[in-house]
Amino acid sequence: MHYMTVATRIRNAILSPAWVCFLWVGITVGVSLIATPVRFTAASITRPVALDVGRVVFAALNKAEIVALVLLLLIVRIAGLSRKWWPVCALLVLIVIAQGVWLIPELAARTDVIMSGGEPPPSYAHAVYSSLELIKIGLLLFFGFSALAEQR
């Protein structure tokens, strides 16, 4: 039987990208797939209020995802996994940047129009954002489970 010290096990666990991936998935699923749809089912919340809360929540989510992304990139680099995982990391970087620089501001501007009593023109921004969320969750799950499998 292979003997490993507690310190080595802790070091290996910390340097595994899996924990960051699964934490990030949990946060994203909680906000994007659970809290957001539920918010729009509350009878006491108007559409403009729900959209305003969503704008604030998704701006905060993007900041949390930037922290998770930086942490993931650091772990991948320190653990010597950069060469193997750079394509997945690059896709995650592109998604987080696209959401934070393009989609969240565009969706916030649409919220401003609705809150001022108007109706914005049709846009694919929400569909693109939602699609990127699902791709991001899939990438993170793939990365997390692959990292766990490699530890065996």
Explained architecture:
The protein is mainly alpha-helical and 152 residues long. It has one domain. The chain is built from five helices and no strands. The protein is elongated, with a radius of gyration of 19 Å. The mean pLDDT is 94.
Number of strands: 0
Largest sheet: none
Q: What is the helix tally?
A: 5
β-strand amount = under 5%
Q: What share of residues is helical? A: over 70%
How many angstroms separate the termini?
A: 13 Å
Question: Topology as H/E string?
Answer: HHHHH
Give the overall silhouette. elongated
What is the CA-atom radius of gyration, in angstroms? Answer: 19 Å
Average pLDDT figure: 94
Q: Would you tell me the structural class of the helices and strands?
A: mainly alpha
Overall number of domains: 1
Contiguous uncertain segments of 5+ residues: none
Subunit arrangement of the protein: single chain
Keywords:
81% helix, mainly alpha, single chain, 5 helices, 152 residues
Outline of the structure:
The protein is mainly alpha-helical and 152 residues long.
Topology overview:
Layout: H1 6-14, H2 18-39, H3 47-78, H4 82-115, H5 125-150
Helix pairs in contact: 2-3, 2-5, 3-4, 4-5
